Amino acid sequence: MTYYAIIVAGGTGSRMGAQIPKQFLELNGIPILMHSIKAFYQWPLVPKIILVMHPDFHDHWKKLCDEHKFTTPHTLVPGGKTRFHSVKNGLEHVQSPGVVAVHDAVRPLVNHQFITNLFQNAQLNGNAIPAVKCRDSIRKVENNTSIALNREHYYLVQTPQCFTSEMILKAYEQDFKEEFTDDASVVENMGVKILLTDGDYKNIKITYPEDLLFAEAIIGRL
Ligand SMILES: Nc1ccn([C@@H]2O[C@H](COP(=O)(O)OP(=O)(O)OP(=O)(O)O)[C@@H](O)[C@H]2O)c(=O)n1
Ligand SMILES: C[C@](O)(CO)[C@H](O)COP(=O)(O)O
């Protein structure tokens, strides 16, 4: 069985508002993206790593790899217009049979045991999607009115999202829809039941500047 990790790093980081896309910002002395790749490339389950990145940044990335003596093997692939298109480009390098994890480059605090559990779950059950329970009270706002919802019914979804290669390759043959915010929504759209597994509250996504502060605090205690 071949395991694949598609690490999507093709975004611009508009909400972060930094001079460079957030995946290149440093966390604990190395670019965020390197933490994410390193988490995957560990024994005993070592996947083939496919890194998806806008071609304008390929040279920048190669320079960063030299500077940081970063030698983890990976295949560099051009990014697409949206996350969906970036994942689709990555999937061109996947062959069946296999198990595929798709991970946001900007979730650098993911850990290898967590990744291994997801790969194994997906191999057994077809897919495995990490999610955490909503810890706050939750309200729906419509027409200027808010109503309380039962938070027991709501989960926050993370990455890596894992699938058998047959399942995800077929799903990404579908035409793009705006509602596709993650890989689970793409796979679900072809009628597959999505299977949630325990997420990790520390596996945060770096989206806004304050997220970097949270990540620094967490990494200091890992
Ligand atoms: N065309 C795109 C858009 C996003 N991503 C990746 O998808 C992940 C999750 O996306 P998000 O956090 O929204 O990143 P950005 O699109 O960069 O951020 P923003 O929406 O603030 O511009 C990131 O690792 C991002 O690099 C990608 O590979 N290709
Ligand atoms: C894929 C994801 O990280 C799951 O939580 C999320 O959907 C990405 O959303 P974004 O709007 O691209 O940040």
TrEMBL record:
Record family assignment: Belongs to the IspD/TarI cytidylyltransferase family. IspD subfamily.
PANTHER family in the record: 2-C-METHYL-D-ERYTHRITOL 4-PHOSPHATE CYTIDYLYLTRANSFERASE, CHLOROPLASTIC (PTHR32125:SF4)
Root EC class: transferase
Swiss-Prot/TrEMBL keywords: Isoprene biosynthesis, Nucleotidyltransferase, Transferase
Protein EC: 2.7.7.60
One function term, GO molecular function aspect: 2-C-methyl-D-erythritol 4-phosphate cytidylyltransferase activity
HAMAP family: IspD
Name assigned to this protein: 2-C-methyl-D-erythritol 4-phosphate cytidylyltransferase
Coiled coil ranges: none
Transit peptide in keyword set: no
Catalytic activity: 2-C-methyl-D-erythritol 4-phosphate + CTP + H(+) = 4-CDP-2-C-methyl-D-erythritol + diphosphate
TM region positions: none
Feature type site, description Positions MEP for the nucleophilic attack: R151, K205
GO terms, biological process: isopentenyl diphosphate biosynthetic process, methylerythritol 4-phosphate pathway
Site label Transition state stabilizer, positions: R15, K22
Gene3D superfamilies: Spore Coat Polysaccharide Biosynthesis Protein SpsA, Chain A
Lineage per the UniProt record: Bacteria, Pseudomonadati, Bacteroidota, Sphingobacteriia, Sphingobacteriales
Source organism, top-level taxon: Bacteria
Pathway it works in: Isoprenoid biosynthesis; isopentenyl diphosphate biosynthesis via DXP pathway; isopentenyl diphosphate from 1-deoxy-D-xylulose 5-phosphate: step 2/6
Endpoints of the signal sequence: none
One Pfam family it belongs to: IspD
Function as written in the Swiss-Prot or TrEMBL entry: Catalyzes the formation of 4-diphosphocytidyl-2-C-methyl-D-erythritol from CTP and 2-C-methyl-D-erythritol 4-phosphate (MEP).
